[in-house]
Every structure is written in structure tokens, then in C-alpha cells.
């Protein structure tokens, strides 16, 4: 049956059919080339002649005409490792999104952020005090002139103090590890939660502290306190000069309060 069926094929078609059955799926390139040969062997142009593919060596194939045999290389874009991963949508290290969000990593990141913020704040305050002509009292008066409400001012103080309190508590937690304590995974998480709560409480307590200057009540001009010692006014109208004492008498009756010593000569 198959022999009778193959006898109706041209020699080229017959060879292509046999080769196509011999080649498996693993020989897809050779299979494609053989089928391409069979196609060109039977293809006709508009003028009724056999269509010849451009270029290549022509092999005589009998009465069906000439065929061309060529190997077509697959067109592939050569991508490097990073380009392939970016095309697949993979995020590469050290991108933070490849790590799982957990307490230890988040606290470590914010510990460094708070330290950088505190260092930058100290530099800003120091350079402002060095280069600016404004003193701390003038700056305080400008802040008071903003007329902020008590709640708003307390919230601002809390936000300013929070990096300091968090950096302090997280730093104490890190220093405790140098004592070889709290190093198990449950203890690390417990100390992390404790550090967060303590930093919030410390920031809240410091924000609620208000230091008010002591107000000195002005005294009335008419009120004059009695001196501890009596004051004797000198009589400028009298031209009398007191006589010199012949002997030094250190009794309280003879020594006046204005005299600093004995006027007698030895």
C-alpha cells in the first residue's frame, strides 16, 4: 500500500518523505531543511516555471527542476546575566525588595538612619551657632513668636526627640549583645519590641517636660528695707573738726560707727 502510494510522488518528494519519517523531533533543524527542499522542488512561479530560492548552490533534482539547499541559523539575541533577569522581572541583589520584611532588618535600617539624622542635626546646630550672629535667646524668641498651640508644640518636640530616644535604646540593645546575652532568636525579637516601646515612652516623657523661666516679681519703688546697720549721714554744714583723742579708748561708746580705727598716735 505504502509502495503504491509512494510511487505517485516525484523522486524529490519521495526522498523528502522518507527522510522526514526517519528524522525524529530531536532533529528539527534537519527536518525543517528537508521539508524546505521538497517545497522548493514543487513550487512554481507566476510564469509557470519552477521557483528558485535566492543564493546558494543549486542541486539538480530530476524533472521537477532544481532545488537549493541552505542552513538557516536561528536568530537569537545574546543577553547577559543581568539583562536576562531584568527581562524576566527579577530584582537583583543588593536591592532591598529581595529581602523579607522583618523586625531585625527594619530596626537595623532605622538605627543607621537615626544616627545619620542626629549627626547631621549636630553639625547644623554647630555651624549655625558658629556662622550666624543670632544667639540662642533670639532663636527661642522667634520660636515663641510663632504662637503655636500646646498640642502642636508637644508633637513637634516628640518628633524631634524620637530619633534620639530610638537610637539610645537600640544602641543599648546592641551593647547588651557584647555581654553574650539575649542572642537567641526569641530573645532578639523580645529585646527589639522592648526597645521600641521604651523609645516611644522616653520620647513622650521628654516631650511633655516643659521648662519655664522663673519670673521675678518687680518690687515697688517706695518700699525700702531697713538696713542691717544704721547709716549716719555726715553734717556738711558744720565746719567743726573733731578734736584728736589723746588716748585710744576702744569702748563702743567713744567709737563712732563711721570711724574705721583709732585716730590717736602712738
Structural write-up:
This protein has 266 residues and is mainly alpha-helical. Among the domains are: 7-69, no CATH class; 99-208, 3 helical TM bundles of succinate and fumarate reductases (Up-down Bundle), CATH 1.20.1300.10. The chain contains eight helices and two strands. The protein has helices spanning 2-7, 11-22, 28-42, 81-87, 103-131, 136-144, 150-177, 185-208; strands at 57-60, 66-69. Helix 2 packs antiparallel against helix 3 (28-42), helix 5 (103-131) crosses helix 7 (150-177) and helix 7 packs antiparallel against helix 8. The longest helix is centred in the middle third of the chain and has 29 residues, at 103-131. The N and C termini lie far apart (168 Å).
Major sheet details: 2 strands, antiparallel
Rounded average pLDDT: 74
Shape: elongated
Fraction of residues in H or I helices: 40-55%
CATH topology title of the domain at 99-208: 3 helical TM bundles of succinate and fumarate reductases
Please name the fourth-level CATH homologous superfamily of the domain at 99-208: Fumarate reductase/succinate dehydrogenase, transmembrane subunit
Report, as a whole number of angstroms, the end-to-end distance.
Answer: 168 Å
Strand content: under 5%
Supply the number of helical segments: 8
User: Looking across the biggest beta sheet, what order are the strands in?
Assistant: 1-2
- From the 3D coordinates, which CATH architecture of the domain at 99-208 would you assign? Up-down Bundle
- Provide the CATH top-level class of the domain at 99-208: Mainly Alpha
Give the low-confidence spans: none
Radius of gyration: 53 Å
Number of strands: 2
Which structural class matches the secondary elements? Answer: mainly alpha
What is the N-to-C succession of helices and strands?
HHHEEHHHHH
GO molecular function, one term: metal ion binding
InterPro entries: SQR/QFR_C/D (IPR034804), Succ_DH_cytb556 (IPR014314), SuccDH_FuR_B_TM-su (IPR000701)
Subcellular location: Membrane
Keywords: Heme, Iron, Membrane, Metal-binding, Transmembrane, Transmembrane helix
